[in-house]
């Protein structure tokens, strides 16, 4: 996957990072700001996947509030299958209403709870254009915590861990 940051260069990245700290209301649909958000979401996904490839996901802590997030998620979505996500279940009008209620519970608890974040739609595949869904940060935490605690990500280390060069 080509990196967006490669096409912007260092100057573009530095200029854009300060922009992301400003209130969203100040901007219209500015392509450069949208590109910066895409870069930030992609870099978050890349870092998270590298961590999954290195650490036992069952012991991985994503936030100081993991227990609360997971408990609340399973109270709101007790039957949601997290191994393979149904994007319609998340983004349908009914799904949006349910998720909004869940997400707002974390507005003052989880920093950047509403930031756009990429999540793999299928745990058996790495991040790619066809295997990524844009969700809020709190949705990412909720689903990934469930995946980690329920064993859905257990295979990632063995399946995707880079093979060390033999000398």
Automatic annotation (TrEMBL):
Q: Pfam families annotated for this entry?
A: PBDC1
Which superkingdom does the taxonomy of this entry point to? Eukaryota
Gene3D superfamilies named among the record's database cross-references: yst0336 like domain (1.10.3560.10)
Q: Where is the Polysaccharide biosynthesis domain?
A: 33-157
Name assigned to this protein: Polysaccharide biosynthesis domain-containing protein
């Amino acid at each position: 996957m080509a990196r967006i940051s490669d096409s912007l260069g260092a100057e573009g990245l530095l200029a854009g990072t300060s922009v992301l700290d400003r209130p969203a209301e100040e901007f219209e649909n500015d392509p450069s700001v949208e590109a910066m958000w895409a870069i930030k979401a992609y870099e978050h996904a890349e870092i998270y996947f590298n961590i999954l490839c290195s650490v036992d996901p069952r012991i991985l802590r994503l936030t100081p509030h993991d227990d609360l997030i997971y408990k609340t998620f399973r109270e709101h979505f007790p039957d949601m299958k997290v191994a393979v996500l149904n994007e319609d279940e998340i983004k349908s009008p009914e799904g949006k209403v349910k998720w909004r209620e869940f997400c707002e519970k974390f507005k003052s608890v989880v920093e950047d709870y509403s930031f756009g974040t990429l999540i793999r739609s299928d745990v058996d595949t790495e991040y790619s254009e066809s295997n990524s869904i844009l969700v809020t940060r709190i949705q990412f935490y909720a689903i990934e915590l469930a995946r980690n605690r329920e064993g859905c990500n257990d295979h990632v280390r063995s399946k995707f861990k880079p093979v060390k060069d033999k000398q």
